[in-house]
Design brief:
The chain has 19 helices and no strands. It is mainly alpha-helical. It has one domain. It starts with 11 loop residues before the first helix and ends with a helix.
């Protein structure tokens, strides 16, 4: 049991950092699979990148479904540990793993069978792009049961506070992928050049190996919860809380992926079948994931930290952990904004052949527009982790889904109605391409809205919770600047609130 970390006491800042860094590193490793593919395939051409980008939307959608078990098991285990109920933690792990395997197999079969009509939804005119995407997607579907089960096994480790082991296992798989990618994409010796199909095969092989290593560690070498068999009958007692916490998160993420696919279709219509804007968005999404994954790492750490302290009824630590993590995430957002604004050309140039100047130039514009949303995106992700930790996943789901839906009408609004008011970016793109940027402005504005609303919602939850008697940071500032007499006459309304005020101050 020494592998389980107690987060209900001790210094909060180092606990969050120690939890988050391996999670961030693991997220980067998982993201690096796609980025490595994009970097190598970008040397072949933007059409190949577009093809893989289309398929990756489906991979993203499937990953979203597995948030049901990943978030469900993280929160279930962490709250059980905080409540000193290890047997319940074991049951959450077993039920989540069994459920994840069933979901991943069902999704993989669906993708394999309906791959062709799914690809046609993107409305790309190039036959090469569509055929390449179809072949790549079907190869990736073979490895989906392993890839998505790996997500849940990482969640089991995160729930017990051991975030290092998932990193090392996933890093091992990435090394294998990095070695196999150029060999299978470009060919080597008697191995033929397979392009995008080679990238898919490399990913599947590495994910199968990661799955086998995870099984060995969880069952033989470490087994932090001392579980003999992770597969078994799913119990309603544990399925319900897993679905209650993980379901809204999965629904939010799946809707994000779904509306991103719809948005891609809208953008392709605006671009009249030109594949360049889609290539830009495919590459740009991978670049933006650098900040998104970093913030998500701290969000997951905050979820585990909050879950344990929620189980232990430590609301003061929940509040402090939230604001500490919010400060870290905000700093990440600021750094991302500066990088996207001032070195976007160098960043984007890493992922595409230098001969394709039009793609790079439009990519610079994409990063400039998205730079304005980075701080708010980081705030949104942090607040989501805090909500998940206290078992209230519905508010982030509501805000996230509505925000994602709004991106569709916003895309039409800016691209057609308000296009004359959009910056023209004359140094980088042609005048006829300005309308496409309306899609990206819609993404930025909705991110600002989502981050602001979720922050205020969680602050309201902290303020109103009866067991939290610590003033919020801005309350302390407000209390200091208001004269004592005015404070008592205008803020304190009745004796009951006076006592509550004294407790808070």
């Amino acid at each position: 049991m020494n592998q389980i970390k107690d987060l209900t006491c001790g210094n909060i800042f180092p606990q969050i950092i120690k939890l988050a860094i391996p999670i961030i590193a693991t997220s980067f490793v998982q993201m690096a699979y796609n980025m490595t593919d994009m970097a190598w395939l970008g040397q072949i051409g933007s059409e190949t990148v577009s093809a893989v980008g289309m398929a990756l939307y489906l991979v993203w959608f499937g990953s979203s479904l597995l948030f049901i078990t990943k978030i469900g098991v993280e929160v279930g285990i962490s709250q059980s540990i905080g409540n000193k109920n290890i047997e319940r933690a074991k049951s959450f792990a077993k039920n989540a793993f069994s459920l994840s395997f069933l979901i991943s197999i069902a999704f993989a079969l669906t993708v394999w069978i309906f791959a062709e009509p799914i690809i046609s939804l993107f409305n790309i005119n190039s036959e090469f792009v569509n055929n390449t995407a179809l072949k790549y997607l079907r190869i990736i579907a073979i490895g989906m049961p392993f890839t998505y089960s790996n997500i849940t096994m990482s969640g089991i480790y995160n729930g017990v506070g051991n975030t290092k082991t998932p990193f090392w296992i996933n890093a091992f798989g990435l090394i294998i992928n990095i070695i196999l990618d150029p060999i299978l994409i470009f060919g080597w010796g008697s191995i033929p050049s397979m392009g995008a199909e080679g990238a898919g095969i490399a990913t599947v092989i590495s994910q199968v190996i990661v799955f086998l290593v995870f099984v060995y560690f969880l069952h033989v070498k470490e087994n932090p919860l001392h579980i003999k068999n992770y597969l078994g009958k799913i119990q309603k007692e544990f399925l319900t809380p897993i679905l209650k916490v993980g379901g809204p998160v999965a629904l939010q993420s799946a809707s994000f992926a779904f509306f991103a696919m719809v948005l891609a279709r809208v953008m392709n219509n605006i671009a009249e079948g030109n594949a360049i804007p889609f290539s830009v968005q495919s590459i740009g999404a991978q670049i933006e994931a650098l900040s998104w994954m970093t913030a998500s790492g701290f969000s997951t750490a905050l979820g585990t930290f909050t879950g344990q302290n929620y189980g232990a009824n430590q609301w003061i630590r929940i509040q402090k952990g939230f604001f500490i993590t919010l400060g870290i995430a905000g700093f990440i957002g600021i750094i991302s904004t500066l990088l996207f604004l001032f070195v976007g050309d160098h960043i984007f140039g890493l992922f595409i052949n230098n001969n394709e100047n039009e793609v790079v130039q439009m990519g610079i514009v994409y990063l400039i527009i998205l730079s304005f949303s980075q701080v708010f995106m980081s705030i949104e992700i942090t607040a989501t982790g805090a909500f998940n930790g206290v078992g209230r996943a519905i508010p982030p789901a509501i805000v996230g889904i509505i925000g994602n839906i709004l991106r569709i009408p916003f895309a039409f609004l800016f691209s057609y109605t308000l296009v004359d008011y959009l910056p023209e970016f004359q140094n980088w793109i042609k005048p006829e391409s300005v309308s496409v940027t309306g899609v990206w402005w819609g993404i930025t504005i909705t991110s600002v809205l989502k981050g602001s609303i979720l922050f205020l919602w969680f602050v309201a939850l902290l303020y109103k919770h009866p067991e939290n008697n610590t003033p919020l940071p801005f309350q302390r500032f407000w209390i200091r600047i208001i004269p004592n007499r005015l404070r008592q006459t205008s803020i304190i309304i009745n004796p009951h609130e006076n006592e509550e005020f004294k407790k808070r101050t």
